[in-house]
Amino acid sequence: MDVACTQCKSPYPSTGAPHVCTNCGGLFDYSFDSTQPAASSRAHIVPMHLRESGWPVSEAVSLGEGHTPLVRAKVFGRDVWFKCEYQNPTGSFKDRGTAALISFLVSRGVTEAVEDSSGNAGASFAAYAARAGIRAKVFVPSTASGPKLAQIKAYGAELVSVDGPRINASLAAQKETESGAVYASHAHMPFTLAGYSTIAHEIVEQLGGMPSALILPAGQGGLLLGAWRGFLSLNPPRARDEATRIVGVQAEACSPLAKDEEGKRRPAEGVEGMKDEGRTVAEGVRVANPLRSEAVRRAVAESGGRWIAVPEDAIMAGRDALARQGLYVEPTS
Predict the structure, then answer these.
(1) Which residues on neighbouring strands pair with residue 221, listed in sequence order?
(2) CA–CA dist 262, 55 (Å, integer)
(3) Given this model, what pLDDT does residue 233 score?
(4) Are 257 and 296 spatial neighbours (Cβ–Cβ below 8 Å)?
(5) What whole-number distance in Å separates Cα of residue 317 and Cα of residue 70?
(6) Residue 85 pLDDT more than 60?
(7) Residue 277 or 6, more confident
(8) Would you give the distance in Å from CA 146 to the centre of its chain?
(9) What pairing do the DSSP bridges indicate for beta strands 158-162 and 28-31?
């Protein structure tokens, strides 16, 4: 697995753990050989995506993430399967990516790191950091839900509440890097994407074949992008001809990806880029400026999928409908 800057193509440094390119400030991403089938997802997440790909990860940090149930149900007369990611160790799919990220940080000798999150990513980061013996600090928006904050604190992480829009928590975390802190950002760091791709491997194993479509919520769109790459690696010769359609769902109040399927919108940077950050109960996807928006939109387009923006009054109704199927999830799901 080769990691390089998406702008200047500089390779990821052999030492340290920067979240952006030290040459141009661009995002790092990983590449993979989509013509070769991937290894079975029955291997642990980290060995499959880092150790077997040449990364010097001597010890995988794991809490038993992945291998979540796939539950069948009838919805509007159709057979639908629900991938129960809330059965991951800290309650969300983020654990797949965090296992890979924290394992990488351990391989680089990192002992302290910071993250920003509205909830799930922060809880996952705090848990895996605790497992690895890494001192963690998590910056959260002051509007973040109470239960998630309690979970983050329970793992022993230092919690810092930041007033204002969501971007303020990110800026506060990034400022910590000025004093030498490692910014273990689930959005910036590409290692999380490799972990997320395991969801595609598991779904195919559980179904016994490729699904016709995958519907999932998207904020930064990391899970969506990782899943698409996972499907490509599992079925390289026919992936684009017999693609699993990826359907990305956003809250209408904050839907930058759904509003522009053609990719013409260029996200502004900094606080000014967050003016359209609308209020929504689906706080986990309240991201007005997705960092990998171009790659995420391309994944949906290549799959033959689409975007859907859900009005606020339908979100809780959807959550309640899922509960009546026996699936108790948060509004973002």
Answers:
(1) none
(2) 35
(3) 86
(4) yes
(5) 22
(6) yes
(7) 6
(8) 21
(9) unpaired
Please give the single-letter amino acid code of residue 229. R
Supply the pLDDT for residue 26.
97
The closest of 160, 101, 93, 168 to 128, measured between CA atoms, is 101
Contact by Cβ (8 Å): 109, 86: no
Continuous H helices in the chain: 45-49, 94-107, 120-132, 146-154, 166-175, 191-196, 198-207, 222-234, 256-259, 293-303, 312-323
pLDDT tens figures, 22-36: 999 999 999 865 555
Whole-number CA gyration radius for the chain? 19
Report d(CA 4, CA 134) in Å as an integer.
25
Helix (H, G, I), strand (E, B) or coil at 97: helix
Q: Can you say whether the dihedral through the CA atoms of 133, 139, 141, 146 is positive or negative?
A: positive
Q: Tokens 């969300």 — which residue?
A: 92
Q: Which residue reads 């309640």 in tokens?
A: 320
- Crossing angle of helices 293-303 and 222-234, in 10° steps, is 40
